[in-house]
TrEMBL record:
Gene3D superfamilies: 3.30.70.100. Pfam families: DUF1428. This is RNA signal recognition particle 4.5S RNA. InterPro entries: Dimeric_a/b-barrel, DUF1428. It comes from the Bacteria.
Amino acid sequence: MSYVDGFVLAVPKANLDAYKELAETAGAVWKEHGALAFVECLGDDVPYGEVTSFPRAVQAKDDEVVVFSWAVYESRQSRDAVMAKVMADPRLKSDWSAMPFDGKRMIFGGFQPFVEL
Protein backbone atom coordinates (compact mmCIF):
# COMPACT_ATOMS: atom_id res chain seq x y z
CA MET A 1 0.00 0.00 0.00
CA SER A 2 1.21 3.53 -0.74
CA TYR A 3 2.18 6.36 1.60
CA VAL A 4 1.02 10.00 1.43
CA ASP A 5 2.43 13.30 2.66
CA GLY A 6 -0.22 16.00 3.05
CA PHE A 7 0.17 19.77 3.33
CA VAL A 8 -2.21 22.64 4.05
CA LEU A 9 -1.05 26.26 3.90
CA ALA A 10 -2.24 29.79 3.21
CA VAL A 11 -0.79 31.72 0.29
CA PRO A 12 -1.35 35.45 -0.22
CA LYS A 13 -3.33 35.92 -3.44
CA ALA A 14 -0.69 38.42 -4.59
CA ASN A 15 1.93 35.63 -4.37
CA LEU A 16 0.07 32.93 -6.31
CA ASP A 17 2.26 33.19 -9.42
CA ALA A 18 5.43 32.87 -7.32
CA TYR A 19 3.89 29.99 -5.37
CA LYS A 20 2.90 28.19 -8.58
CA GLU A 21 6.45 28.52 -9.87
CA LEU A 22 7.81 27.13 -6.60
CA ALA A 23 5.26 24.28 -6.63
CA GLU A 24 6.12 23.34 -10.21
CA THR A 25 9.82 23.18 -9.33
CA ALA A 26 9.12 21.25 -6.12
CA GLY A 27 6.83 18.80 -7.91
CA ALA A 28 9.46 18.10 -10.55
CA VAL A 29 12.07 17.51 -7.83
CA TRP A 30 9.75 15.22 -5.83
CA LYS A 31 8.88 13.18 -8.94
CA GLU A 32 12.51 13.01 -10.09
CA HIS A 33 13.48 11.57 -6.71
CA GLY A 34 10.73 8.93 -6.72
CA ALA A 35 7.34 10.36 -5.73
CA LEU A 36 4.55 8.72 -7.70
CA ALA A 37 2.35 11.82 -7.70
CA PHE A 38 2.52 15.44 -6.59
CA VAL A 39 -0.64 17.57 -6.49
CA GLU A 40 -1.26 21.23 -5.55
CA CYS A 41 -4.85 22.46 -5.16
CA LEU A 42 -6.22 25.97 -4.56
CA GLY A 43 -9.12 26.21 -2.14
CA ASP A 44 -12.33 26.76 -4.10
CA ASP A 45 -14.99 25.73 -1.59
CA VAL A 46 -13.41 25.96 1.86
CA PRO A 47 -15.86 27.72 4.17
CA TYR A 48 -14.69 29.29 7.40
CA GLY A 49 -16.08 26.93 10.05
CA GLU A 50 -17.50 27.89 13.43
CA VAL A 51 -15.15 25.53 15.28
CA THR A 52 -12.60 24.26 12.80
CA SER A 53 -11.90 24.40 9.09
CA PHE A 54 -9.04 24.58 6.61
CA PRO A 55 -8.90 28.40 6.78
CA ARG A 56 -8.92 28.34 10.60
CA ALA A 57 -6.26 25.63 10.71
CA VAL A 58 -3.76 27.78 8.80
CA GLN A 59 -5.03 31.13 10.13
CA ALA A 60 -5.83 32.25 6.57
CA LYS A 61 -6.30 35.98 6.17
CA ASP A 62 -8.84 37.65 3.87
CA ASP A 63 -6.20 38.19 1.18
CA GLU A 64 -5.00 34.55 1.24
CA VAL A 65 -6.12 31.34 -0.41
CA VAL A 66 -5.87 27.91 1.23
CA VAL A 67 -3.66 25.43 -0.60
CA PHE A 68 -4.06 21.69 -0.08
CA SER A 69 -1.35 19.48 -1.54
CA TRP A 70 -0.05 15.98 -1.34
CA ALA A 71 2.65 13.66 -2.60
CA VAL A 72 2.22 9.90 -3.04
CA TYR A 73 4.97 7.32 -2.62
CA GLU A 74 5.27 3.56 -2.99
CA SER A 75 5.70 3.08 0.77
CA ARG A 76 6.82 4.79 3.97
CA GLN A 77 10.33 3.51 3.33
CA SER A 78 10.24 4.99 -0.18
CA ARG A 79 8.91 8.29 1.20
CA ASP A 80 11.73 8.53 3.73
CA ALA A 81 14.31 7.95 0.97
CA VAL A 82 12.63 10.44 -1.39
CA MET A 83 12.36 13.10 1.33
CA ALA A 84 16.05 12.77 2.21
CA LYS A 85 16.93 13.42 -1.45
CA VAL A 86 14.41 16.25 -1.78
CA MET A 87 15.67 18.03 1.34
CA ALA A 88 19.25 17.80 0.04
CA ASP A 89 18.37 18.97 -3.48
CA PRO A 90 19.93 22.40 -4.18
CA ARG A 91 16.98 23.43 -6.37
CA LEU A 92 14.86 23.66 -3.23
CA LYS A 93 17.38 25.37 -0.97
CA SER A 94 15.93 28.75 -0.13
CA ASP A 95 15.70 31.39 2.50
CA TRP A 96 12.40 30.57 4.24
CA SER A 97 11.80 34.28 4.80
CA ALA A 98 11.72 34.72 1.00
CA MET A 99 9.04 32.05 0.50
CA PRO A 100 5.74 33.22 -1.07
CA PHE A 101 3.85 31.97 2.02
CA ASP A 102 4.24 31.86 5.80
CA GLY A 103 5.81 28.47 6.50
CA LYS A 104 5.03 28.77 10.22
CA ARG A 105 1.34 28.32 9.43
CA MET A 106 1.82 25.30 7.16
CA ILE A 107 0.43 21.99 8.40
CA PHE A 108 2.02 18.79 7.15
CA GLY A 109 2.27 15.14 7.98
CA GLY A 110 2.70 11.63 6.65
CA PHE A 111 -0.25 9.30 6.32
CA GLN A 112 -0.59 5.56 5.90
CA PRO A 113 -3.63 4.83 3.73
CA PHE A 114 -5.93 2.20 5.12
CA VAL A 115 -8.46 2.25 2.27
CA GLU A 116 -7.37 2.59 -1.37
CA LEU A 117 -9.86 2.03 -4.16
